[in-house]
Design brief:
Number of helices: 10
Radius of gyration: 19 Å
Number of strands: 8
Strand content: 15-25%
Shape: elongated
Length: 197
């Protein structure tokens, strides 16, 4: 048994990954994926996400494929923006407060909620260590998110992130000031900056 050429082309164009939705959009049934898995041609990485057998699994990328509302944030965005060298064990994502993730998906990540009108503020794409493009927040938005969630995070993470941001050549303090006001963390940011700088 071989993988259908149309499906194989989509997989190769998608960094060795395909979703159930993509297979259905190509006009095939989801049961075909099960046949490919049984034949050892594909591996099921997550619900609805499959990779070619033997391909390296990019957990950030396959997690993002599960929902178009997911944007990597907090410690995961720190890592993607080069402000932390620690790869998070569990990825942090932000979704609009009027959206729900499946229980299965929520169990796989740390989920933060934000008002829908603020969800896309600072959203960019970055490459994972395996070269796949994923949605995440820029450095300025990430600093604001860390300050907003500082009671849920360890103090070292927040302080380290602000120090690394301050030392970064790519920082944009004007954008940070605008975001800090937008997310109501301007006073907290000022306190941290005064102590650290």
């Amino acid at each position: 048994m071989d993988i259908n050429p149309m499906i194989l082309e989509t997989i190769k164009n998608n960094n060795n990954t395909i979703t159930t939705a993509q297979v259905i959009a190509l006009g095939f049934t989801r049961s075909l994926l099960s046949k490919y898995v049984k034949a050892g041609l594909l591996e099921r990485e997550r619900q609805g996400v499959y990779t070619l057998s033997g391909a390296i699994h990019d957990d950030m990328y396959t997690l993002m494929l599960r929902s178009d509302k997911i944007i990597f944030s907090h410690d995961t965005a720190l890592f993607l923006n080069g402000l932390s060298e620690r790869t998070p064990f569990t990825h942090s994502v932000t979704i609009p407060s009027n959206t729900k993730l499946s229980n299965l998906l929520r169990d796989e990540c740390v989920c933060y909620y934000i008002k829908p009108e603020l969800h896309q503020v600072g959203a960019i794409t970055r490459k994972t260590t395996l070269g796949n493009e994923v949605r995440c927040y820029n450095a300025e938005r990430t600093i604001c998110d860390l300050l907003r969630s500082r009671n849920r995070l360890d103090e070292e993470t927040v302080i380290g992130a602000i120090k690394n941001y301050a030392a970064s050549l790519d920082k944009n303090l004007n954008v940070l000031a605008v975001y800090a006001t937008q997310f109501s963390v301007d006073k907290v940011l000022k306190r941290y900056m005064e102590v650290l700088l």
